[in-house]
Amino acid sequence: MAMTRRDVKDWMAGFLPAVVAVHWRERLRAGIGALCGIAVTGGLMLWLLGPVSYIPWLVAPMGASAVLLFGVPASPLAQPWSILGGNLVAAVVGVTCAMFIPTPVIAAATAVGVSIALMFTFRCVHPPSGAVALTAVLGGPAVHALGYGFVLEPIALQSVMLLGSAIGYHAITGHRYPHATKAQAPARPVNAQAIPVTTADAEKALARRSELLDISADDLASLMRDTQREAFARRAQELTAADVMAPPLAKVQAHEEVPAAWRLLQRHGLDAVPVVDSEARVIGLVTRHDLHTRRARRQNWPRFGVSLGAGQRPAVRDLMQGDLKSATAGMPLSELVALLSTQRHGTLPVLDDAARLVGVVTHADVLRKVVNA
């Protein structure tokens, strides 16, 4: 497919820096936090190990971790298990690859690839952990001499120190961290009509946040629209015919004359009316279409007038649709919609176990209930 000029322009726009909707005070707070976190981590390592040590008192990946912990603390990639689990997994994989794969390039590539796969497996994805894996492979003789001790000192120790600094700093500055996953609230009906979400809405919502969220306005708006669709789909699965149906406004006896059915349709503004037998069981439907077709074919009763004598006008049973399709009160909405779509008149009677009428469902009833659910 050929790319248009607009497509090329949109693609090139992706190289431009994104607008960061974060107040300058939050930016300053994040920078000071990273300064404090790295200083505390490096200072403690220096105090514990002394100025002369074969163990690195600060490894480069901690700088990348500080960006997430202090700059984007709401990100799932910056949570405690992410930094601890991700760094430890990557360190173990990196040391193992350095020991058993003699070619540095192959060892480095394998270490990063396997680390990413395991981080996804253990739900501890942390981007700086990729640098931990590379450091274990390419860190030189001093790092290689540590062997698996590299996992504990410096990686585990520095990760714990940096994480502790972040927790303390966010608490002191009145910032929520970590962002723990809240328990799912019990599902309850939402009595509000969904309003379309635009990118401009998402930009304004992000601008009001006191911290940076690692999601673009376009992605957030798209996510909200997908969420609305999923909510509608879930609600549609939960609804049944009993939730959607309306009380039957009218029904007509099979032995009654056709004008009686026509008057009911006119009076209540219906497209179809259920037909019942002498025991009140629904045996069919009579629709406006049925009556109009019959009227067009039988010109001698154009308005169902009284010009014909008693007994000369046909009974409802002569015009009704006998191949009745009906629903039960417990029928799911998904099945109900599929059945309703086959009805030209858009009316579906809801029957109980004794084939007696308990309600009627129309297209309008379904739309009204789903939209307002």
From TrEMBL:
<dbReference type="GO" id="GO:0003938">
    <property type="term" value="F:IMP dehydrogenase activity"/>
</dbReference>
<keyword id="KW-0129">CBS domain</keyword>
<keyword id="KW-0560">Oxidoreductase</keyword>
<dbReference type="Pfam" id="PF00571">
    <property type="entry name" value="CBS"/>
</dbReference>
<dbReference type="InterPro" id="IPR046342">
    <property type="entry name" value="CBS_dom_sf"/>
</dbReference>
<feature type="domain" description="CBS">
    <location>
        <begin position="245"/>
        <end position="303"/>
    </location>
</feature>
<keyword id="KW-1133">Transmembrane helix</keyword>
<feature type="transmembrane region" description="Helical">
    <location>
        <begin position="54"/>
        <end position="74"/>
    </location>
</feature>
<feature type="transmembrane region" description="Helical">
    <location>
        <begin position="107"/>
        <end position="125"/>
    </location>
</feature>
<keyword id="KW-0812">Transmembrane</keyword>
<dbReference type="InterPro" id="IPR000644">
    <property type="entry name" value="CBS_dom"/>
</dbReference>
<dbReference type="Pfam" id="PF04982">
    <property type="entry name" value="TM_HPP"/>
</dbReference>
<feature type="domain" description="CBS">
    <location>
        <begin position="320"/>
        <end position="373"/>
    </location>
</feature>
<feature type="transmembrane region" description="Helical">
    <location>
        <begin position="30"/>
        <end position="48"/>
    </location>
</feature>
<dbReference type="InterPro" id="IPR007065">
    <property type="entry name" value="HPP"/>
</dbReference>
<feature type="transmembrane region" description="Helical">
    <location>
        <begin position="132"/>
        <end position="149"/>
    </location>
</feature>
<keyword id="KW-0472">Membrane</keyword>
<dbReference type="InterPro" id="IPR058581">
    <property type="entry name" value="TM_HPP"/>
</dbReference>
<feature type="transmembrane region" description="Helical">
    <location>
        <begin position="81"/>
        <end position="101"/>
    </location>
</feature>
<protein>
    <submittedName>
        <fullName>Inosine-5'-monophosphate dehydrogenase</fullName>
        <ecNumber>1.1.1.205</ecNumber>
    </submittedName>
</protein>
